[in-house]
């Protein structure tokens, strides 16, 4: 008979959803390995499967339910966690046979359920754990989650209901994790949370200590400290608060990448108000100008929703004019999709699907022309790039202006010289299409460096 106390159990893991969910998955996987469990790549070999789900839009719910069904069919022992897990009645009604259902960021709960099903080995082999934990992203870049939850009340979103109000991680803990990631070989940190610029608000910017140094729990202090670790630091999901100006100043100083991922969602004051978002788009254009004057090499990425309930033809034209005037570098756009539980579902004036689709395609074609012009304007530039992948013929890389997995890539012809993913090189941009750039490798670049002009320190 197998002694279950000493058997090393294998856990299968399916990770769906956004970068924030990826961080949750990494935490669970890291804990599993720390306790001596093995991770199985196949359903058949796994003793149990954890499915980390997404519940943000209808398509994500369907994908999550499909993944749960597949894991049940192929393994049978399934724990559901993540955003869809917050709607446990939906999951349980569809799949009554799942072992347990938890919500997002539920490391302790998931581990407790796994312990009850499959006791951990009595002598956890801590040396199984690579330094920096288990990463689902390639070793040279890693997501670093700095807070959980959100204090905003955007009417199309249920994240505050799913994940609760903003809870910021202690600044010292984040910086220690960042240092561990850097010593594990990470060259770029992607800072994520639901509302990154709000970091610390919930603690009233509490004073904390890191390496004996007093630091306030605030995004500017955190960014400045991260910027001194000698790697690239990229901020995602920056809500357009007034203090974003200070972050752009840090970008101009070369401390963090000059890349602002600022979800604006719309420009029409009426729609922004219905979305419960800041509603002054003239001001936004002025602020974009101001940010660009502080940091001329700034890349701005944003996302927009078209076909929000009550969006008139005039509202949509307002948005198109804003897109023309703002000349953003990268834009993601979506048609409005009602999410169960979102306040916006009760708004009058639902837009028919075909009009939503038509507006989306008009917005995207307007923006594609702008994005293409912006890429063309980079021809002839010499940029520092971080190598992501190498094939016998091609190097895939990205510069400060492209977020990995989100924006386009820089494609470079491979040469005989030995290079590896995670190395910085200098490249000259020689061609561009609508999304990607083509470049020539100039020379290897020193390992620790900053990405662009460094202004004289004040
Ligand atoms: S700021 Fe983002 S996470 Fe928070 S409510 Fe708005 S859309 Fe949702």
Distance between the ends:
70 Å
Q: How many individual domains?
A: 3
Do you know the CATH topology of the largest domain? pyruvate-formate lyase- activating enzyme
CATH class assignment of the largest domain: Alpha Beta
Please list the strands of the largest sheet in the order they lie side by side: 2-1-3-4-5
Q: Uncertain runs with pLDDT below 50, 5 residues or more?
A: 1-6, 123-127, 445-458
* Structural class computed from helices and strand pairing: alpha/beta
Form type: globular
**What's the helical proportion of residues?**
25-40%
Beta content: 15-25%
Number of strands: 20
Bound molecules: iron/sulfur cluster
> Quick check: average pLDDT?
88
What oligomeric arrangement do these chains adopt? Answer: single chain
Sheet with most strands: 5 strands, parallel
Radius of gyration, rounded? 23 Å
Q: What is the correct CATH architecture of the largest domain?
A: Alpha-Beta Horseshoe
User: CATH superfamily assignment of the largest domain?
Assistant: tm_1862 like domain
Question: What's the number of helices?
Answer: 12
Structure explained in plain terms:
The chain is α/β, with parallel strands linked by helices and 458 residues long. The protein has 3 domains: 10-128, 3-Layer(aba) Sandwich (Rossmann fold), CATH 3.40.50.12160; 143-376, pyruvate-formate lyase- activating enzyme (Alpha-Beta Horseshoe), CATH 3.80.30; 382-444, OB fold (Dihydrolipoamide Acetyltransferase, E2P), CATH 2.40.50. 32% of the residues lie in helices and 22% in strands. The protein has 12 helices and 20 strands. The chain has helices spanning 19-34, 58-74, 88-94, 107-117, 159-163, 171-183, 219-226, 244-252, 269-275, 281-294, 313-326, 353-376, and strands at residues 10-15, 38-40, 48-53, 78-82, 100-101, 141-145, 147-148, 167-168, 188-192, 207-210, 213-216, 232-235, 259-261, 299-306, 330-335, 382-390, 394-398, 410-413, 424-432, 437-444. The chain has a 5-stranded parallel sheet, sandwiched between helices. Strands 16-17-18-20-19 form a 5-stranded mixed β-barrel. The protein has a 3-stranded parallel sheet with strand order 6-9-12. Helix 8 packs parallel to helix 10 and helix 11 runs parallel beside helix 12. The model is unreliable at 1-6, 123-127 and 445-458 (pLDDT under 50). Iron/sulfur cluster is lined by residues 150, 152, 154, 157, 159-160, 194-195, 239.
């Amino acid at each position: 008979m197998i002694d279950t106390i000493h058997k090393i159990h294998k856990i299968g893991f399916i990770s769906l959803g956004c970068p924030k969910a990826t961080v949750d998955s990494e935490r669970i996987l890291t804990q599993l390995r720390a306790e001596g469990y093995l991770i199985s790549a196949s359903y058949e070999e796994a003793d149990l499967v954890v499915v980390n789900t997404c519940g943000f839009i209808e398509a994500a719910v369907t994908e999550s339910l499909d993944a749960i069904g597949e894991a049940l069919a192929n393994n049978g022992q399934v724990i559901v966690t993540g955003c869809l897990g917050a709607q446990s009645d939906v999951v349980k009604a569809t799949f009554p046979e799942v072992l347990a259902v938890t919500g997002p960021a539920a490391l302790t709960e998931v581990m407790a359920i796994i312990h009850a099903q499959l006791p951990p080995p009595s002598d956890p082999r801590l040396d199984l754990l690579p330094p920096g934990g288990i990463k689902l992203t390639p070793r040279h870049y890693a997501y670093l989650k700095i807070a959980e939850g959100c204090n905003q009340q955007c009417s199309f979103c249920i994240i505050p209901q799913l994940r609760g109000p903003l809870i910021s991680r202690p600044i010292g803990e984040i910086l220690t994790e960042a240092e561990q990631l850097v010593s594990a070989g990470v060259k770029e940190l992607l800072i994520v949370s639901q509302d990154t610029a709000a970091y610390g608000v919930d603690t009233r910017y509490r004073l904390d200590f890191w390496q004996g140094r007093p630091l306030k729990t605030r995004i500017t202090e955190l960014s400045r400290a991260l910027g001194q670790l000698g790697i690239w630091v990229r901020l995602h999901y920056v809500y357009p608060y007034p203090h974003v100006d200070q972050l752009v100043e840090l970008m101009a100083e070369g401390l963090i990448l000059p890349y602002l991922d600022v979800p604006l969602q719309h420009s029409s004051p009426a729609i922004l108000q219905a979305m419960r978002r800041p509603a002054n788009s003239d001001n936004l254009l002025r602020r974009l100008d101001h940010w660009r004057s502080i940091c001329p090499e700034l890349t701005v990425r944003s996302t927009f929703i078209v076909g929000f309930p009550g969006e008139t033809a005039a509202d949509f034209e307002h948005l198109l004019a804003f897109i023309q005037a703002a000349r953003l570098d990268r834009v993601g756009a979506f048609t409005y999709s009602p999410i169960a539980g979102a306040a916006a579902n009760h708004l009058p004036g639902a837009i028919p699907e075909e009009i939503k689709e038509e507006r989306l395609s008009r917005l995207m074609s307007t923006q594609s022309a702008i994005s293409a012009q912006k890429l063309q304007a980079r021809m002839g530039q010499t940029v520092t790039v971080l190598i992501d992948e190498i094939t016998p013929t091609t190097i895939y890389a990205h510069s400060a202006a492209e977020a990995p997995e989100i924006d386009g890539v820089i494609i470079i012809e491979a040469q005989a010289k030995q290079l590896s993913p995670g190395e910085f090189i200098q490249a000259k941009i020689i061609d561009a299409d609508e999304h990607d750039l083509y470049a020539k490798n100039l020379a290897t670049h020193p390992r620790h460096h900053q990405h662009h002009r460094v202004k004289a320190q004040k």
